[in-house]
Amino acid sequence: MRYKYLLIDWDGCVIDSLNLWRKEIKKHLAVLGVEASNKEVVSKAMGKREAALNFGLDVDYKSFWGPIRKIVEREIANVPYLPEVEDTLKKLYENGHKMGVITSSARGVFNVGFKGRSVAKYFDATVTASDVKNLKPDPEAVNLLMSKLGASRDESLIIGDSPHDIGAGKNANVDTCLFYPKQNHSFYKYEDLLATEPTFLIEQFSDLLDVVGGGV
């Protein structure tokens, strides 16, 4: 087995939730008097605690993110998996891989979208934004999840869909796999993702089976 421990991003990697986040952030910015493009929402807000500051808003963290999270929490449980995710996670689990979720979503929002999911039983540990001081690309979340899994760096792989995921893996000295499904093409440019120099790049989630190697 090439990689025993898999650290997997949640939004945009396991579930097709990026559009939901972008839509609600954009709507809330409009309420606050900011007309932001999709590109600006992705680059300045998604996965960032300092989103309000990035848009020049004198609004504290809770006031900015609270209304957005409230709406996302109502809808996140119904967001579908990305193609091939459910079957692939099942096979990885059956092959003996130990898996954990690493996400920049707050614990409350994540739990609503995670608990009760068919794939929840395949994960041994989770790390959310509520569990760390520094979000990706800082390595803190990666290091914490590895500690929870009892993982070694040379047997670990982080799988994510954004430059922040790849950056976090590199900063933690862990190999990286960039997942770039067609559903995420409007969020990140292929050239920008390639510039992060991931160890692997896949466009189908099932290709992860070839990347990580066979069972024990």
CATH fold type of the largest domain? Rossmann fold
Q: What proportion strand?
A: 5-15%
What is the arithmetic mean of pLDDT? 95
The beta-strand count equals 6
Largest sheet properties: 6 strands, parallel
Q: Uncertain segments of ≥5 residues (pLDDT<50)?
A: none
- Classified by CATH, the class of the largest domain is Alpha Beta
Identify the CATH homologous superfamily of the largest domain.
HAD superfamily/HAD-like
Class from helix and strand fractions: alpha/beta
What is the rounded Rg?
17 Å
H/I helix tally = 10
Sheet with the most strands: spatial strand order? 3-2-1-4-5-6
Relative helix content: 40-55%
Distance between the termini: 6 Å
SSE series: EHHHHHEHEHEHEHEH
Shape: globular
General description of the model:
With 216 residues, this protein is an alpha/beta fold. It folds into two domains: 5-16 and 80-212, Rossmann fold; 18-78. It has ten helices and six strands; from the N terminus they run E-H-H-H-H-H-E-H-E-H-E-H-E-H-E-H. The chain has helices at 18-31, 38-44, 51-54, 61-75, 85-94, 107-114, 140-149, 163-171, 190-194, 208-212; strands at residues 5-9, 98-102, 123-127, 156-160, 175-179, 200-202. The protein has a six-stranded parallel sheet with strand order 3-2-1-4-5-6. The termini are close together. The mean pLDDT is 95.
